[in-house]
Amino acid sequence: MMSAPLLDCAGITVRFGGVAALDGVSFDVAAGEIHGVVGCNGAGKSTLMKVLAGAVAHYEGAIRLDGAPIRLDSPRASLRHGIAMVYQELSGIGQLSVAENLCLGRQPVTPWGTIAWRAMIRQAEAALAELEIAVDVRRKLAEYPLVVRQMVEIARGLHSGARLLILDEPTSALSIPEARRLFELMRRLKVRGVAQVFISHFLEDVLAICDRVTILRDGRRIATHPVADVTRRSLIEAMVGRGVDATGQDHLEAVLPEVSAGPVRLRVDQLRSAGAFEDVSLEVRAGECVGLYGFVGAGHQDLAQAIAGARPVEGGVVTVDGAALRRGDVGGAVARGVLLVPADRGRSVVRQATIGQNVSLAHLRRAVGEWLTRRREMEAVQPVLNRVGCRPPNPRMRAGLLSGGNQQKVVLAKWLLGPVRVLVLEEPTRGMDVHAKREVMELVQQQKGAGAAVVLASSEPELLLAYADRIVVFSRGRVTRTFAGERVTKADLMHAAEEGLETVAGKAL
């Protein structure tokens, strides 16, 4: 039995350009409840949460807090009512310190009106200590990897003193030990009476941590159930509106093929990057997908960036079709057909630009020729948007309005305008539902079938078991095991990733 709702939404409707992103959605959450929200990309989850966070003010319907009507017409209004949101696409300011990010807008001041720097540092350290993260809060946020920036966002929401905390895909960038630590924190907040909304495409996480779950589909609320009354299969069926087929497979094991006899397209020789990985060598053949697996911070994601020239290296060589790439030369790598899709979509999608501008950005001359007109640009990008299944396929729509899965399709569409010899994917399906994952990976499979060498770096064992031909496992920057031509299970991958892992990842940062 849940207590009376802390927050109660009735008939929430939001339209963008005449299209209903939310259509009469009702939703409530009680104090001390963890309420999950699930649905396919574009189902309306993010829009509903942005309404609660005050980021989308043009909504219809009623919102009550403690039984009293309120209007959430700005982020400041939401914060004033004790509602804080941690966005999936990180909003921290990289050039400010961790402490400045945590206390932004709430900096302690001296009697003379200046910032009390020592007090702010103490507050930041205390906020991070609650999450058991040991980092130097005086360093710039941009100096830390994605996982630390994610945890700082979570700590920032908690530091605001929220009564209702909205977590949008908080575990998508976390390793298994870090996700467990987050769940422990969420349970402590639950005991203290903090209401929490948990949005996740990891249905196992929803079932593990939530009290109730609401399913959205096509902008409408399909149902709300106690978690004890649902299963992963029933959630997927409700999300997609049909029975579960291959979409619902767990991919707990796979039989990997023998190493391909095709020509070597990508070769990595003794590549090393200080503090990330050491002396890594591997080959990827044309038409082959090699998976890189490890817990967050294991070095596999850093290697993916280094292959594409996006991370500095101290030694080693990367060659494509027998010719060496220049170290740190992203432009040169792109010209050679080595393309990186990074985990942080904020680095690949210009959210304020249109979809069409994002797609044409990397290959403008190749796509439209010497004379650029808006009409020629749209004519060039429209077919590739249709090809990747972007929804809606409107090149004039602002890219920031798309769901995470459709933003990733825009990133892939951008690269499909040019040559693809090596496709490097870093957590390509982070924060996506099972249906969107399958759509994106089908596009990757098409490139593989056309002869591209695919490097798939992920901390999701299921993704690698479903799509990789070989799997290289990392732990603390070193390769611990390579699986090829054999049966491999999720447990095998996780055991190999734990070799040499003496401390939990959060304390080793």
TrEMBL record:
Keywords: ATP-binding, Cell membrane, Membrane, Nucleotide-binding, Repeat, Sugar transport, Translocase, Transport
Residue ranges annotated for the ABC transporter domain, each copy included: 7-243, 259-501
Keyword Cytoplasm belongs to the record: no
Entry superkingdom: Bacteria
GO MF terms held by the record: ATP binding; ATP hydrolysis activity
The protein, known as: Sugar ABC transporter ATP-binding protein
Stored InterPro entries: AAA+_ATPase (IPR003593), ABC_carbohydrate_import_ATPase (IPR050107), ABC_transporter-like_ATP-bd (IPR003439), ABC_transporter-like_CS (IPR017871), P-loop_NTPase (IPR027417)
Family matches, as SUPFAM superfamilies: P-loop containing nucleoside triphosphate hydrolases (SSF52540)
Signal peptide span: none
